[in-house]
Amino acid sequence: QVQLAESGGGLVRPGGSLRLSCTPSGRTDTSPVVGWFRQGPGAEREFLAAIDQYGSAVYNYNAVTGRFTISRYGSQTTVYLQMDHLKPEDTAVYYCAAGSQLLMSSRWYNNWGQGTQVTVSS
User: Fold this and answer.
1) How far apart are CA 18 and CA 41, in angstroms?
2) List of long-range contacts for 71-78, beta carbons under 8 Å, 24+ apart
3) Residue 109: pLDDT band by 50, 70, 90 thresholds?
């Protein structure tokens, strides 16, 4: 099992920025990939980005349109999602998840954080 501690959500005005953090713990050796997902009001959960233990990343560019960046540094366990130029349609609960493969489908992510609310509003 992998536990995931998320932070960084909050209320931000359109055009603003937020940086989300996700710190996995537990059996991270078997789940070296961390992905970010979101679920807006009345919407399906959608994949945003994921990163593996080597720093390779994949993005759902249809969702983030180049405004989001996923990162991790060296041997640090924390994974970040930098979100810039935020729009009201970015309002959602954002989740991080630990998985075994650098893939976009949620079926490869077995452990999920509790979610952090991001609200973009003027």
Assistant:
1) 19
2) 72/34, 77/23, 77/24, 77/25, 77/28, 78/21, 78/22, 78/23
3) very high
